[in-house]
Amino acid sequence: MKKSFFGGRISSSNLVYALLDIVAVNLAYGVALWFRFDCNLSVLLNGAAQAYFFAWAKFTPIYSVLCLLTFFGFRFHKTLWTYAGYSDLIRIVLSSVITVMLHVVFITLLFLRMPISYYLIGAVLQTIAVILIHFFRRFIGYSKDLRTAHEGEAHVLLIGAGAAGQIILSDMHHSGRIPDRVACIIDDDPKKWGKVLDDVPIIGGRERILEVVERYDITKIYVAIPSASAQDRRDILNICKETDCELKILPGVYQFLCDEVTTESLREVSMEDLLGREPIRTDMEELLGFLSGKVVLVTGAGGSIGSELARQIAAYGPKLLVLFDIYENSLYEVQNQLQDDFPELNFVALIGSVRDSRRIYEVFETYRPEVVYHAAAHKHVPLMEVSPNEAIKNNVFGTYKTAYAAMVHGCKRFVLISSDKAVNPVNVMGASKRLCEMIVQAFDAKIKAGRAEEIPQLFTHRTPEMKKRNDIDFSAISTEFVAVRFGNVLGSNGSVVPLFRKMIEKGGPIKVTHPDIIRYFMTIPEAVSLVLLAGTYAKGGEIFVLDMGSPVKIDTLARNMIRLSGLRPDIDIEIEYTGLRPGEKLYEEKLMEEEGLERTDNDLIHIGKPIPFDPDSFFRDLRRLMEIAYANRESIRDSIMELVSTYHPNK
Fold first, then answer.
1. pLDDT value for 231
2. From 3, 38, 108, 374, which residue has the greatest number of CB atoms within 10 Å?
3. Could you tell me the sign of the dihedral formed by the alpha carbons of 547, 548, 550, 553, in that order?
4. Residues 616-630: pLDDT tens digits?
5. How many C-beta atoms lie closer than 10 Å to residue 210's C-beta?
6. Are the C-beta atoms of 182 and 248 separated by less than 8 Å?
7. Domains contained in the chain, number
8. Domain enclosing residue 234, as ranges
C-alpha cells in the first residue's frame, strides 16, 4: 500500500488502474490525431502533420499529471468499483469534461493549437476508455462473486421492482449478509418489462412466475410489494405456492415508510397473507370513548378470543378490567402477560363458571361491570355432539345466567360472541349458539318494550344474597344486548391451523375430514376488533356479521401449509381423508335465508335483521329445556329442535 497525495492509501491494484488511465487518456488523443489525418502514420511522423504529433507527444507527461490530479480529486482511488453505479458513472463523465478543458487550454498555450476534430474525438474516446476501464473492474468483481457464490447459493425470484424491491436487491448485492443471488424480477407494470435493475432483468408479470421458476431453477421467492392490495398479494402468493420454493414476504408499507426494508425484514409467508382481504380497521377514538374509564368484564378470558379481548381492551384505559374463566392455567398466563405489557392497568382475574348462578351474581354484585363481553363457551363441535347436555348447560344457560345478572346489576352493554355455526345448524354446538343469539334478542325485545320484569329467572340454585325479584327496579333497566357472529379463527384453540402444524412437524399425515369441506377464516385480532366495534355500534338486538371474504377449502388450507413449510403435498406429507365427524357439515353460512343485511359505518361489518319469534313462548320452552339438560336426558336434541326451527342434526 502506498500513500496518495491526498492522505488516503492506494492499493497496488489502484496503481495499476491509474497507469491504465494514463495510457488510455493519452492514447485517446493520439488515436484522435491519427483519425484526423486519415489514419496515415507517415503523415504524422514525417509529413505535414509532424508538428501536431510532436505537440501531442510533448504534452503527454503534462496531461498525465493533470489527469491523475483530477482523478484523485474525484476520489477514484477510494471508489469500490466492484459495486460502481450510476453516481460513479456521472463522476467519470465530469472528471473527463474537466480534463478535456485542461487539455484544450494547456496544449494550446504551451505548444500548438490542434485541429478541432482532435479535441472532439479525443474527448469522446477518453471518456469511453475511462468508463470501460473502471466498469470492467465492476464486471470482474461481479463475475468473481458469481463464481464464489454459485456453490450452495439459492436462486431467488424477486417479485416487485418498486422502491422496496430495489432496496432488497441492493441489500442482497452489497451487504454481504445474504449468499443468495437474484436471478430475475417479476413486476406487473408492463413499462418495466425488458429493463434491468442493478444488473437483474425484469422479465414480465405474475403470469410468468411458474415459467420463470422452472427456467431459472428458482429455489426461493421474495415478495416485496408492500403497497399492493391484500387481494393482489393473495393472488400472487397463490401462484407462488404452486411451486416448491421457499416463500418470504415484506410485511407491509409501514416497514417501507419507516426505512425498515432489508432482507432481515422479510418474513415467512403466513396463512393470514393468503386471506386475500384487508384487515378490519377499528376507530381508535370511538373505542377510547366507549371503553375508557369503564368497568369491563370478559368471560372466557383465558381462551383465544377472550385473551385477545383482554389485551385490546387494556390498551383503551378501562377503569377496571375483570377477567373471568373456569380454567386457571390459561387465565394465569393472561394475567402474567397483562402485568408485563400494561403495568398501570387495574385488573382482577377471577376463577369461576358461568353456569354457577351464585358465583356470577357475586362477581356482578362486587364489581358492577358496565360492559360485558361474553366469550365463555364450549366450542368443540365433535365433543359437544357426544355431550349435548353439557353444551346446553354451559353455552345456553351460562349465557342466560350471565345476561340476567348483567341486566339486574345495571350493565349498559352486553356483547355475545357467537359463531357462523349458528346459521342453519347441524350440530349441537351451532344450535346452542343460535339459542344464545335468541336469548340476547329476547332480552333486548323485552327491555325495549318496557317489560323486563317478564324475563324469568332460570336458576338451578340460589342463595339469600342473590337479588329477589321484588328488590329489582325493572323500570330502570336499560341494558343493550347484541351478538357478534364470525367464522373460524386462525390460530385459536381448537383451530385446524395449529392442529395441521403439529401433524406436519410429525411428518404427517395431515388428516382432513373431506376434500370439499369449506370454512370462513379470520384472524384473532380481526375477530376481536369486530367484537369491540359491535359494542360501539350497538343499539340493542343486533347480530353483527363480518364480511369474511371468500371461504377457504380445508383441503387447500392443508396443502398451502405443507407448501409454506417447504414440503410437497402427497409426496413429503400425505393427506388423509377421514370423513365428516359428528355434527360437521361441508360448508358454513354467515346468515340465515330469512335474515337480511344492513350496512354499518364499516364496509366489512353488516347487521343481520333479527328473525321474529315470540319471546314469551321462547322463555317457557327454555325453562323446559333447562330441566331436560340438567336431567341429562338423551332426548335433548328433540327439545332443541322445538326451539330452533333451523336446526337439522346430521344423522
1. 73
2. 374
3. negative
4. 999 999 999 999 999
5. 14
6. no
7. 3
8. 155-269
d(CA 295, CA 371): 7
Q: Are residues 129 and 205 in the same domain?
A: no
Give the per-residue pLDDT at 338.
95
CA dihedral of residues 554, 556, 229, 566 (deg, nearest 10): 120
Write out residues in the chain with pLDDT < 50, as ranges: 1-9, 142-152, 252-265
Radius of gyration for the chain, computed over Cα atoms and rounded to the nearest angstrom:
38
The pLDDT of residue 78:
59
- Cis previous bond, 612, omega within 30: no
pTM: 0.63
Residue with cell 382475574: 349
Query: How high is the pLDDT of residue 434?
Result: 94
**Three-state DSSP state, 246:** strand
Residue reference for cell 358465583: 359
Q: How far apart are CA 396 and CA 9, in angstroms?
A: 82
Q: What is the pLDDT of residue 415?
A: 94
- Going by C-alpha positions, the residue among 479, 418, 493, 411 that lies closest to residue 445 is 479
CB 360 within 8 A of CB 401: yes
Of 281, 245, 372, nearest to 318 by C-alpha is 372
Query: What confidence score (pLDDT) does residue 314 get?
Result: 93
Question: Are 188 and 209 members of one domain?
Answer: yes
Residue 636 is predicted with a pLDDT of 93
Q: Rounded to the nearest 10 degrees, how much is the dihedral formed by the CA atoms of 322, 323, 328, 334?
A: -120
How confident is the model at residue 535, as a pLDDT? 74
For residue 100, being part of any structural domain is answered with yes
The torsion angle over the Cα atoms of residues 66, 70, 72 and 76, rounded to 10 degrees, is -120
